[in-house]
Amino acid sequence: MKTKKLTIIKNQHLTWYDLESPQKEEYEMLKKKFHFHPLDIQDCISPVQRPKIDEYDDYIFLIIRLPYYKKREKVILASELDIFIGKDYLITIHRGKVSTLKGFVEECQNYEEIREKYLKYGPGFLLYEILKRMFDRCYPLLDSIGTEIDRVENRMFHGHEKETVKTIANIKRNTINFRKIMKAHRQVIKKIIKSDKFFLNLNGAHSNYKTITYKNILEEIENIWDILDGHAETIFALDRTNETLISHQLNKVMKTLTIISAIFLPASLITQFFGISFGDAPFTKNLIGIFGILFAIILTSLLMVLFFRGKKWL
Fold it and tell me: Angle at CA 135, nearest 5°, toward 131 and 136?
């Protein structure tokens, strides 16, 4: 069954309700049908800044935050996935930006084999598959950050230091945002592993299979975090290197300007001396004197150039 905002997928073991961008009436339906805690409903309505898990007698409420890339602003932001887990149901609530989940919903809705494969072992197994797919989608984002870092490094060492400053700042922002989004998920998965509610293995027993599968997710989160740490260290190191290169280029410019000023300083002194308004200034009454002054200016400038070259400043 599917409406504009609600998709219902079911078999004899489990019912999966998927709500996309629900409005007030959908939330009222959840309250009446499942008697969820009002604070949990409020968390679904208002964006939450961290993952969390709350366990009740008859259901578990779970919030997962996942990264997605907003192309226009070139920034990584968080999308929120709210999940209610009961004995014979699982409810997912999202506000768009979760294409991986939407694709999985369509697969389960359209293909009976896939539906049976993931629904017949209960909500714990379906939740595992959802989380696995959602965290798997982090890797393309990590790869794109890595590609940007490589591109920055290549440009930086080919004379484009100033042009890469903005790109480096954007990568740093995205890396920081990614780390903020992923930070608390480890504790959430650890709590799921410790919980005995609604998590059945393939044989209908408890514990071992659940522990193994959710430990895989925990390892995947750790792996994502390690890659993020590597990206963060690399981009911060490149930022420092880029600043050093820019500073070096600026020092070269300042050195060149200082040398030019020093070369023309004697010439400026000579012209100022002979420009003084006193009656009988030497060499200013005839053409030979004027050329002599000009020769002195050129000579002193050349001597300054030879001096700087001798000092290896040029």
Answer: 115
Q: What is the spatial distance between Cα 247 and Cα 238, in angstroms, rounded to a whole number?
A: 14
Nearest residue to 16 (alpha-carbon basis) of 73, 143, 96, 101: 101
Token reading at 191: 């709590």
C-alpha torsion angle, residues 197, 83, 88, 115 (rounded to 10): -120
State residue 16's pLDDT score. Answer: 93
| CA–CA distance, 291 with 305 (Å, rounded to integer) | 21
Distance CA 286, CA 178 (A): 78
Handedness of CA 73, 221, 130, 198 (dihedral sign): negative
Over residues 68-100, the pLDDT tens digits come to 888 888 899 988 999 999 888 999 999 866 788
Hey, which residues does 206 pair with through a beta bridge? 200
User: Using the 8-state DSSP alphabet, how is residue 148 labeled?
Assistant: H
Can you tell me the distance from the alpha carbon of 16 to that of 18, in angstroms, rounded to the nearest whole number?
Answer: 6
Residue whose entry in the numeric block shows the structure tokens 């027993």: 205
- Amino acid letter at 151? R
β-sheet bridge partners, residue 63 = 52, 82
Length of the chain: 314
Pairing relation of β-strands 75-85 and 6-10? Answer: unpaired
Q: What is the band of 212 on the pLDDT scale with cuts at 50, 70, 90?
A: low
Long-range contacts, 196-205 (Cβ 8 Å, 24+): 197/55, 197/60, 197/85, 198/60, 198/85, 198/86, 198/87, 198/122, 198/123, 198/124, 199/122, 199/124, 200/121, 200/122, 200/124, 200/125, 201/121, 202/121, 202/125
Sheet holding 6-10, edge to edge: 6-10, 15-20, 89-94, 75-85, 60-70, 52-55
